[in-house]
Known about the structure:
The structure holds two protein chains of two kinds.
Chain A: H1 2-24, H2 31-57, H3 68-90, H4 98-104, H5 106-122, H6 126-150, H7 163-184, H8 189-218
Chain B: H1 4-19, H2 25-54, H3 59-86, H4 90-115, H5 122-150, H6 154-179, H7 184-211
Helix pairs in contact in B: 1-2, 1-4, 2-3, 2-4, 3-4, 3-5, 3-6, 4-5, 5-6, 5-7, 6-7
Amino acid sequence: MYLYLSLALTVCAGIGFAYGLYRFFQDESALYVRMIIFGVGCAMLGRLFETLLFLVNGELGSGFNVGMLGIIGSFLFFFSANYGQMDSIVDDGSVKYRKTRIISFAAPLVVVAIWCVIAATRGIDESTVWVGVEMLFVALASYYHLKHLIIDDVSFGLIRSIRSYNLLSLVYALLCMSEVLVECFNLPTVCIVIVYILECIVLLVFVPVLERGVKKWTT
Amino acid sequence: MDNLSYISFIAITVSLALMLPLMEKKLRRLVLFMISGIFSCLFVSELNNILLGVFHNDIFFVTTTVTPITEEIVKMLPILFVAIMVSDERSTLIPISYAVGVGFALLENVVILTQNVENVTILWALVRGFGSGLVHGICTVMVGWGISYIKKRRKFFYCGTFALLSAAVIYHAIYNLLVQSQYQYVGILLPTITYIPVVLFLRKKKIKANRV
């Protein structure tokens, strides 16, 4: 079961990545967009590794596996894109955005809270620590996703046009954490299937949603 | 008998190093970074031996989880050096990255050849050349190509470099995993399947740029 779900995720991420390469790497396009496409590619590689490891070994094993770097890498790319490129444009560091900055901490706090729940249920072992490391990067990225979702728009509707992308990224972050939660609480198989199907949909529509937003920058 | 890795390292690098004074700047740089790739391989082989002991000689775990990380980190160092100190131009970084990867694969292949000299065949050579040789090249090019984008802004650089490294490590781990499984033929084909579209894409871009 897990094998097929993981394979479906790999295929969906692969389609998203291939579409991104086709649409944005033919000609010059914003580095912001390219970083996000790299992120989807990284997610695909991570899922591919997990699928193959499951196929070869029959299990993922506890603790660290290289597939975790797929989640870490993809959220690092999303974080780099938002922190490195977009944030300096939308937030000039002035007092008027202070409230937004503080509210945005809600996203990483939710991530930390979920990890605490997992740690309290499982206890602190090697696996929990590695999930914590993974979630650290999810938390970093989710701060900027929430911030760019709620921050007042700057001129030309730069941030408004990519709000749906930021919302989708937050959903993806939540789904990645849900995967661990479902496993942690031994929830019924149907929950795992739902989480994976939602992740597949998110990975498929990620780049088209971003593309729709980015198009508005030039029109 | 002395350590075969060191013997191979000396035999290859001395010949290449002696060639350096006779070369033009661009070519010399490439050979120099090929030597640095060879040195990286020597360093990593020692490091991996230590790590193999730490992980109780679990070769499958070490080769699919640990060595991709150590190898990609060490191979990335010369590329980072060039990007920070010399140039972050794509036209400089991509050939240098590939040279580091090829240098690394060269010593790795020679060392494995000397350890299994009675079992190697032409097929083995083809598999090593098209498989691991290409994987090392592709992984370092992936990092070098990405760095040429993210080096432009400091805010991108640190996180972006780590993210690129993650991607290269996973790719390398996928190859190592496949070649040790019953799907080893897929593993051997994986680098070629990746290499051909990348080369075609880069050539297309070059032709387009020349037209403009």
